[in-house]
């Protein structure tokens, strides 16, 4: 790497309204304030052509079969891979709002969608250095602002999603389960501390696929 330090790939996952977008933004802002080169990435990225099709599907303005929408979400990550890799190599830490794990979880809870089939097209994407899973108690989930009108925004789906994420966290290294019931600042402090450590730990290591 010739003295060049790479950035870290840090993902935030969790159920609807667990505070992922809020925390991603704060984490990037705090890292920048500490002179760490950092950028925000979010999935789905609704700004691309594929992202536009995903947006229509989520807003229930189009119908796609479960397999087709699954592959679109995955393609939306593949189309960003080169750019993400380039930024990491240039030393930019990427804070990612949802990633492959959302893709696998939201699809595999559907009837007739096998976990293994859902995982396969994600293989070969950049592997995160750290995944934060934000969890909410049922009590706190009920207090967060109401569901919107998008697909998946209902209690039954979110309960299945919460369980599937927890199951996934038990099978993988590099995951930190962070209870996100506390204040925005409390949760942020935990994430910032762990992220700073991880950035230093991986800066001389290779980027993983
Ligand atoms: N999806 C998929 O199926 N396959 C895939 O591959 C991917 C996604 C990538 C849209 O995602 C849908 O796509 C999603 C999964 C599916 N479906 N669902 N559900 P999205 O990321 O675009 O979804 P979103 O609309 O941004 O919602 P969200 O991400 O679920 O919310 P959030 O980012 O976790 O929460 P937030 O926006 O930061 O906060 C929500 C509210 O709570 C807000 O008013 C905050 O001010 C408040 N908040 C945040 N933190 C706190 C604390 N600590 N205390 C009190 N209040 C708080
Ligand atoms: Mg969000």
Automatic annotation (TrEMBL):
It comes from the Eukaryota. One of its GO terms (molecular function) is dTMP kinase activity. This is Thymidylate kinase. Pathway: Pyrimidine metabolism; dTTP biosynthesis. Residues 12-189 form the Thymidylate kinase-like domain. Keywords: ATP-binding, Kinase, Nucleotide biosynthesis, Nucleotide-binding, Transferase. Pfam families: Thymidylate_kin. NCBIfam families: DTMP_kinase. Belongs to the thymidylate kinase family. GO terms for cellular component: cytosol; mitochondrion; nucleus. Gene3D superfamilies: P-loop containing nucleotide triphosphate hydrolases (3.40.50.300). It comes from Tenebrio molitor (Yellow mealworm beetle). InterPro entries: P-loop_NTPase, Thymidylate_kin-like_dom, Thymidylate_kin_CS, Thymidylate_kinase. Its EC number is 2.7.4.9. GO terms for biological process: dTDP biosynthetic process; dTTP biosynthetic process; dUDP biosynthetic process.
